[in-house]
Give the backbone structure.
Amino acid sequence: MRTFIAALLLIMCSSTVGAEIVVVASLDSPISKMSQREVTNIFMAKTNRNSEGKRVTAIELSDSDCKTEFYKVITGKTISQLKSYWSKLIFTGKGKPPRSFDENKSLVEELNNNDYAVTYIPANQLTQSMKVVYDFRN
């Protein structure tokens, strides 16, 4: 089953281009909007606070084409370059990568259980329990 879900996500994300990725929070989240700069800073561990001073938790799927495309869009870095970036931050104690989930179901559960969690997904995977806080298409 796990392999099936991973394959399904890979298929859904493989046709995604940067312009079709959105950053989402749970529908009940007090986070209403984020700028691209805020998104970049949160996901690159440069800060863990939004413009309102609230602590925001970045979460993501462990491996997906969406992850590759997302980081390419916000940083211009490849996954290999990101691994180097994270190694340096972890080694110096200055940050750690977003919390990763192996399954989409677990990621969505965390998103719905944490009002200050944000993640990125292909726009065509939006559900009624999510709201867009940053849209790369605009």
Remarks:
- Residues 79-92 form the longest helix (14 residues).
- Residues 50 and 56 are 6 Å apart (CA to CA).
- The helical segments are 2-14, 36-43, 65-75, 79-92, 104-113.
- DSSP finds five helices and five strands in the chain.
